[in-house]
Design brief:
Largest sheet: none
CATH superfamily: YgfB uncharacterised protein family PF03695
CATH class: Mainly Alpha
Family: Belongs to the UPF0149 family.
Protein name: YecA family protein
Mean pLDDT: 86
Shape: globular
Organism: Pseudidiomarina maritima
Helix content: 55-70%
Pfam family, one: UPF0149
Number of domains: 1
Number of helices: 7
Amino acid sequence: MTDQSSGANNPFAYETLTEYFESQGLLSNAAEIHGILTGMIAGGASIEGQDWLLLLSDLVNEGQSFNPQLRERCTELAHSICASLRDPDLGFHLLLPSDNESLYERLTGLINWVQSYLVGFGINQTNLAGLSEDLREAIEDMVEIAKLDFEIEDEEEAERAYFEIVEYLRVSAMLCFGELGQASGGACKTNKTLH
């Protein structure tokens, strides 16, 4: 899958999904929901059955269950995340505001994504002691990134830092999935769709 953050015809484009989630009355934007789902999947959560959807609705819909259309859209998004995390060409991308948006908007989206990723990850993985040193360090870095309070003084430098952080998070999510998500018994299926 190509970059998920752009493309008007892409059902998983940031703007398209954020508008859709708003129309469904959700308080979370696309970056937050994508972050939670990525954290859950990379951390080894199963997206078989309905349990993960109930968990997601608790987190983003004040415990109200999703209507069938919203359930299907979230299921499609979860399967898209699985497919991109499994992509041998490293096709996974964070779902963030497009590069046309202001740096402030993109940084806000980035912080939302990483905070949500940590929530999703923490659902299944509360003990970091069993993780590899690389993954433990990546999660600790994510915690620090999630706390960032950014002030943009040098636009060019901030822009460069933004892209470096996005790439670091992208690689860290794939590392996490490689270590935990794939080892969770194949719960992340890419050829199954709920109807």
